[in-house]
Amino acid sequence: MDAPASDSGSAPARAESGIDIRIRPATRADIPFVEELYERVEATGAPHWRQNGPSPYTTDWIEHVIEKQPADQILLIAEDPGGKRLGYTWALSLTDFDANVPHGHIAGVGVRPEAEGRGVGTVLVQAAEEWCREQGLAEVTLHCYIANQRAHRLYERLGFEDEWFQMRKGLT
Predict the structure, then answer these.
(1) Closest Cα partner for 104 from 76, 79, 68?
(2) N or C: which end of the chain has fewer CB within 10 A?
(3) Residue 155 in contact with residue 105, Cβ under 8 Å?
(4) Residue 123, CA distances (Å) to 5, 114, 131, 134 in order
């Protein structure tokens, strides 16, 4: 797959299903799309407290990533050749808690329901991985809700391995 696009264009990729998918950086016009898909992602297995809690995908955050283009993160959009948005991914650089070394992290992948099973998620993960490589990062992590078995199978197929369970308990 070609590298993620710069501001000057989009990177073409062919999904396993044979459809052409273009990857490009998100723009202001993509904000409602990302917010809508994030809600769908949360509905695929987020625990009850997360579904009703604060979202990292606020309009302010999305605008910040798009307008300021921080060097440590990127929001990418997948679209078909006609410009129809199919999905998004958010990738960033973090520092590993245990090893204290930088690594890439895929903080979100969302695909439209009608685009599921067509290779869009695969192309988005590969684009995020390529961005991480371009940042000089040697590995990438991601989180997946336990109940989202479809995504878990995709990530395993793409070479991700289970590392640990993260558990949470509200104190209020």
Answers:
(1) 76
(2) C
(3) no
(4) 13, 16, 12, 16
What is the reported pLDDT for 54? 58
Count H helices, E strands: the chain? 5, 6
Take residue 90 and report the two structure tokens written for it: 């958010």
Q: Per-residue pLDDT tens for 52-79?
A: 655 666 778 888 888 888 999 999 999 9
> What 3-state DSSP class applies to 155?
helix
- DSSP one-letter string for 88-141: EEEEEEEE-TTT--EEEEEEEEEE-GGGTTTTHHHHHHHHHHHHHHHTT-S-EE
C-alpha span between 7 and 26 (Å, rounded) = 9
- CA–chain centroid gap for 168, Å, is 22
Task: Please give the radius of gyration of the chain, using alpha carbons only, rounded to the nearest integer.
Answer: 16
Q: Is residue 124 left, alpha or beta, with left meaning phi > 0 and alpha meaning psi from -120 to 50?
A: alpha
Type of residue numbered 72: D
The answer on pLDDT for 38 being more than 60 is yes
**What mean pLDDT comes out for the span 24-44?**
87
